[in-house]
Amino acid sequence: TIITEYSPEGSLQTLFNKLSQEEILPKWSNTTRYIQLLGIALGIKHLHSQNIIHGNLKPNNILLDEHYYPQICDFGFLKMRPKPTTEDLLYNAPEINSGESPTFKSDVYSFAIIAYEIIRFDQLPIQISEIQEESNKSFFEHCLSKNPSERPTFDEICRFIIKKKFIKLFDKIEYNLLSQFLDQFEDDQEVIYLHGLLASEIDRKRSALYFKKAADNGHDEALFNYVNLIEKSDISVEKEVATHYIKLAADKGHRESQLRYSKMLKKSDFQEKKRYSKMADDRKSASAMFNYACMLNSGDGIEADKKEAARYFKRSADKGHQKAVISYASMLEKGDGLIVDKEEAPNYYKRAAD
Questions:
Q1: Hey, what long-range contacts does 179-182 have (CB within 8 A, 24 or more apart)?
Q2: Sorting pLDDT into bands at 50, 70 and 90, what band is 239?
Q3: How far is it, in rounded angstroms, from Cα 214 to Cα 226?
């Protein structure tokens, strides 16, 4: 017996059935629909971060609480799953219906069908041409690709569906209600950061609060966004506070912050001014080296040269360029243009992780 929290509004499928029978649902609104779609994406994103594949994502496995907030259930039972039902086949990715095992990318396919239903009130066959905005059409095309490797991750999905162009699919939404939903995740720095990104389209001051909160919890992107708001004077903070966050960003390799902080230092701090200025210059050259290495690696506009690409990736990596560190580690691991070095590759991966 599995005992779960009671979900008074049944499942998303129950709700779809009521809508098809034209029942009046007072709580059903554009804002509720968007919260459901975002909530499902955040839920699966969390499962994937714990290395859990749902494998059977469908409306019957999305329960609704008294606010119509989604609660994902029936995950973690891949080894005991019975013969698929007609509903399973409808939401399964093509590779699963062909007999392959579920993957993280098969959850993406299932999510896209549910998202389409929430947006359009339609089921299969999906008509992507009916979706507004080219970027939104492209999003669904990638999610529903027959090639799993072309489908985005749920990190990418969550970043996309908080964009203004996607939210417009729901016409007007009530930001305060959406904010109440997201404020439940006060201990999740990634959700706090996403909340900041979403708020940046509506209220920059409010956005800054979420960026600051996520930054204080160690989220680098939130830190850089918060510093950018300070530098653009979109928010007013005390000089000491601004200096603190700009220095934090500078120490994490944010070039603009390195330049800004070197200018903020007093003339008497000559050595520190010089050090941060040099860090900014090194960062600029590291980016140029990384871009050139990418061109050499892929043969983009110039003749491909894996060995030379590896050399530039290493030079850029040694100057602290994070993507270069990862690229060089990958080349060491796979022997791509280099001799395989199973001892050195982990050292570079560890540098990137740190």
A1: 181/35, 181/38, 181/39, 181/67, 181/69
A2: confident
A3: 10
